[in-house]
Amino acid sequence: MQISDIEGVKNGQVIDVHCDQLYFSPNAHYALSVYCSTPQKAEEQKEEQTNNESNFLSRAFKELYAKDGIESVKLSEEQVANLWFEQSFNYDSDDYHVVFIQKQTVDSKGEIIGMNGVLIPIDAVTFKKSATGEWELFNKNVSVAHVGNYGEAPDTNTAKVLKLSDKLIAFLIDDKGKSEGHNDIISGEQWNDWQEVIIFSASNGWNYGGLVYLNSNNDGFCDENEDSMSIYKDVKCWGFKGELGIVPLENQEYPALLVTKQGTEADEKLNVTVAKNDLYVFKNGKYEYVKPKVTSSVVSKPPVVQEAKGKITTFAKNSDERKFLMDILRVPVQRELHVPIQFVVQELRVLDNWAFLTAEPIRKDGKEIDYTKTKYIVAYEEGAFDSQMNAIFKKTNNQWELLGYQIGATDVAYACWWKEYHAPKNLMPYSEECQ
To answer: What is the pLDDT of residues 332-345, one digit of tens each?
Structure first.
């Protein structure tokens, strides 16, 4: 490994580049992130990164509960508060950083009490970067939402961001769960993909925006085999996937959300039909499902996946765009690995407005990361872990956004990313035909 291969090292000096702008999109079960950064001096970046990574959570605890804490604080004998997730974003040309905190019920030993059907209250503290570069308290919101199940909020490192309007953005958080439906003949079960919607505006801060239902199927609860002895015999199989679009409404602050479905679905009597689009409108303080009165033609259709016409290029090692991509990836990865990091870039493929990265995260001091102190400990100790990682980015409206990443996969985890992210297949060095 040569020092010139390490992202952020220039003339033998480690330069701490950091981006503190992050966007996320509000749909069901996937999150979209868009970041922004500008070149800074090493000393300024180091000070800013320390502020971002170390102080936001502890400051949030102090602002909300007047208590000191690094990772969690005890609110009472029966309740603790700890980080759900935090994220930077840009709103109306200003930089913000929000910390979402989950309040969990614990027993006498301090262990989380998990009960089915019990939602977790979420508080939020938002900071805004001032003209002098300092992060100042913008607002505090208590009980922004009640989410999750079994004592915990949905597991997420980042949310996807959906721009609802020039004055509204929404964070989308995956909240997959199993629901049951019943009829006179047999109990029918299905797997649903819900997306939690949390909306931000400068005037009101954060507010819960409801649930959007994107994907569903009854895999495992159907059996069309005539010779089967299963209790699900004669229950027809179905499934659909949805794409979320925005439908502006006249004289309405909030646009409608239209889910364009592909596939089949079942009615209350388990009759399988072609899946129909779903429309959600904002009323009574959140998005609610209504029967669609508009067609999908008013919404931009998902892009057709095809080979891009451009050639694979890359960004120079010390270019602003390359540093920017490393910055927006560094935020969630650093939070996940619990240590300041830099990237040893093995390959950066750029194709039109897309970028695909293969790299190895290492500590800022150049040492390897101790994965036994991360959530990857089991895979690492069993030898089913590769320290290499991949990430995919897209440039929209002149801003790069992080669409997704994976760490530690021992197979080709990105083989179907072209389909998942509607990316050109030749962006990745290897792709498969995916259903």
So the answer is: 888 888 889 999 99
